[in-house]
Write a structure and sequence with these properties.
alpha/beta, two-stranded antiparallel ribbon, 8 strands, Flavodoxin-like domain-containing protein, Rossmann fold
Length: 206
């Protein structure tokens, strides 16, 4: 799934079309031997069926929260949002990642699997942290479909980060749930409770 998510996602429409063309030929397939990768001998069409599934706006019951942080304020927001989601939905798989500490290809894979993603960054210089900007640029080229998103982050003065993230997500084809949530400086108990409530709202998004 990692290979498909990172390499083939932008070409899903072609993958779907070509697989169906091959299957319509009704040619018996005994083995699939790729030029660089696994050779499929036992039930070789299993990977074809997987590709067909992945090519059709794939998602699991997963919410992925991605963030970067300077003084742990945005991290604490992410953790509070996670708490709120889990309070409402015990079955959803919630995954929390610090962008600066996680392989970008792994992040793309988790986004591919998700029905909702939340992206967080503190405001810096009227914008967002470079690691967050990098993953948002990667997302833009993936042409994800059938996914929802929202933004969050801390700020000290002007607080543009949630708007910047929101605009990136919209341009990347995500259905943005709301305008996001932000907290002044390092979030206090009141701000964190608002983040928990934000998480509850996200959990109720269908």
């Amino acid at each position: 799934i990692k290979y498909y998510a990172n390499i083939l996602t932008p070409f899903s429409a072609f993958v779907d079309k070509k697989i169906k063309e091959v299957l319509d030929l009704k040619i018996p397939i005994d083995i699939i031997a790729t030029s660089h990768g696994v050779i499929w001998r036992d039930n070789p069409t299993q990977i074809v069926e997987k590709y067909l599934t992945w090519a059709n706006d794939y998602q699991e019951n997963q919410i992925t929260i991605l963030y970067d942080t300077m003084w742990d304020g945005t991290k604490r927001m992410a953790e509070a949002i996670t708490k709120g989601i889990r309070e409402i939905d015990k079955k959803v798989n919630v995954k929390l990642y610090n962008i600066a500490k996680t392989d970008k290809n792994d992040l793309i894979t988790e986004i591919f699997k998700s029905r909702i993603i939340l992206v967080g960054s503190p405001t810096i210089g009227g914008g967002i942290l470079s690691g967050v900007a990098e993953i948002l640029e990667m997302i833009k080229g993936m042409r994800f479909k059938n996914k929802k998103a929202a933004s969050f982050g801390c700020y000290g003065w002007s607080g543009e980060s949630i708007k910047v993230i929101k605009e990136h997500l919209e341009k990347s084809g995500f259905s943005v749930i709301n305008d996001g949530i932000r907290a002044l400086w390092n979030p206090d108990d009141e701000s964190l409770e608002k983040c928990v409530e934000f998480g509850r709202e996200i959990a109720n998004t269908k």
